[in-house]
Amino acid sequence: MTKSPELTQLLDELRDAGITDKRVLHAIERVPRELFVPAAFRERAYENVALPIGHSQTISQPYIVAVMTAALDVSDRHIVLEIGTGSGYQSAVLARLARRVFTVERHSAMVKVAEDRFKQMRLHNVTTRFGDGTKGWPEQPTFDRIMITAAAATIPDALIESLADDGVLVAPVGEAKKDQTLMRIQRSGETFTTEDLGIVRFVPLVAGLPRSAGR
Ligand code: SAH
């Protein structure tokens, strides 16, 4: 596959911004971001910016996707849980690196659109779910890696409890519409080690399902 000049430029920008993880850069190279943004923004798909995706939600800035994916330290042995499917872009990047990705979204219309995109890309290792991600994925006892792509003041207990031994969780922690801290939590037995990865801005993690409008 030949890279478009826009994608080449984005990858250069990510490298210049300090993204050195070759596997992460390669995964980003292998996900056509134009497939994940609304038609009106297609020509801006490879700009290093967050873009609106409807329902007051945003597809994250590629730099943040790269930072979070690198921090998650994903390998092809890992089962990954993502909370906040949104456009499906981050799920697709994770699917290029992981054995399997489970992703949860509370807007059913967004789940359907994301599923179509995964099909179009022939990503067979992504499983979607319409539901409240703060409750985790009850049928799957633990996950090697967990990424939350919406911000909460505290990380829901169900998600902390779903982290496998030696597991890693990456999430923005803080209030909506304010600067939040990107946190990396590594589990080792019953010890959870927390690392602060810097300031980010995410839409809020909202418990429960939307009223009819979002369905
Ligand atoms: N990872 C996404 C970013 C989406 S923005 C992407 O790459 O495009 C955050 C998403 O989290 C939104 O779609 C929002 O609806 C969803 N979200 C918020 N609270 C949630 C919850 N409790 N359960 C599941 N999804 C949630």
Bound molecules: S-adenosyl-L-homocysteine
CATH class: Alpha Beta
What fold name goes in the CATH topology slot? Rossmann fold
Radius of gyration: 16 Å
CATH superfamily membership? Vaccinia Virus protein VP39
**Helix count?**
6
Textual characterization of the structure:
With 215 residues, the protein is α/β, with parallel strands linked by helices. The chain has a single domain (5-200), classed as Vaccinia Virus protein VP39 (Rossmann fold). Helix content is 26%, strand content 27%. It is built from six helices and nine strands; from the N terminus they run ααββαβαβαββαβββ. The protein has helices spanning 5-16, 22-29, 62-72, 89-95, 108-120, 157-161, and strands spanning 51-54, 57-59, 79-83, 100-105, 126-130, 143-148, 163-173, 180-188, 191-200. The strands form two sheets. A seven-stranded mixed beta sheet has the order 5-4-3-6-7-8-9. A two-stranded antiparallel sheet has the order 1-2. Strand 8 and strand 9 (191-200) form a beta hairpin. The longest helix has 13 residues, at 108-120. The radius of gyration is 16 Å and the shape is globular. It starts with a helix and ends in a 15-residue tail after the last strand. The model has no long low-confidence stretch (mean pLDDT 96). S-adenosyl-L-homocysteine binds next to strand 2, helix 4 and strand 4.
Jot down its keywords.
alpha/beta, single chain, about 220 residues, 9 strands, Rossmann fold, binds S-adenosyl-L-homocysteine, seven-stranded mixed sheet
